[in-house]
Amino acid sequence: MAVSTLLASPVLAATVISPSNKGTWDFQTNAADGLGQFVTGPGTPPAGAGSVELASGSNGSNFSAIHTTAYDGQSTTNFANAAASYATYVPVGASNASYPKLIVDVNINTTTTTIPDELTFDPRDQLQAPVAGVWQSWDALNGKWGSTLPCSAFGPGTLAQYLANCLPGNVVSISVRTRADGTGGVRFQVGPNAISDVLVGYVDNATLGFDGTNTKTYDFENNTIVLTTPTNKDECKKGGWQNFNNPVFKNQGSCVSFVEANVNAGK
Q1: In sequence order, what are the residues at sequence separation of 6 or more whose Cβ sits closer than 8 angstroms to the Cβ of residue 229?
Q2: Domains, in order of start, for the chain
Q3: Rounded-to-integer distance, Cα 219 and Cα 213, Å
């Protein structure tokens, strides 16, 4: 069953993240043979030609993640301006637990205290069935999430159900929390799971936002991809907008808008 993507903030073009241009993104694993890297493929990724590969190594109880600090400290009251969608690929033969999860560490800020929580979107908990060997898009914002809070009436459930069932009545805001180890509060992750699991998954075309001020679409690419940027509006015409990958455009109009908003584009 297809799942539509509903985003609170429109995004015209993707930001390319690569080994030489990681921005606020970085990898983390607790396994000696764990893997986090930018690759070409697999197959035909939804944005550009590459993606991020995450693998937990020989022990499925370990994890591998790519995280960002871009949203740390941003706050919301009801996720009204949030955005969360991404695409995954899991090879045929890999463990079903390989589908990369989207995890957001948050602080529940009340009038009297701060309550830490971890919100997890797991593709295996959704109405859309995970399928190996193909790229799948996930509308996380409108999907089901898990929480570490002890709320028996929730889990996994929608963010609206989370707000209604898990939080105290004196909540002032919910903010993205920087983790104790200094890593970003927003991450894609495989593992931990059963020791015997072979966990390997890929992520691409991730649209993320929290308070509406920094919503972006991220295109993960291998460094072997040559980055191309339009320098004038004529380059966007007659299908030319499809030739650029820094950023990636959805149509001719978004390409023209980018050039108009960036006088020094490509320089």
Answers
A1: 244, 246, 247, 265, 266
A2: 13-225 (2.60.120), 226-267 (no CATH)
A3: 19
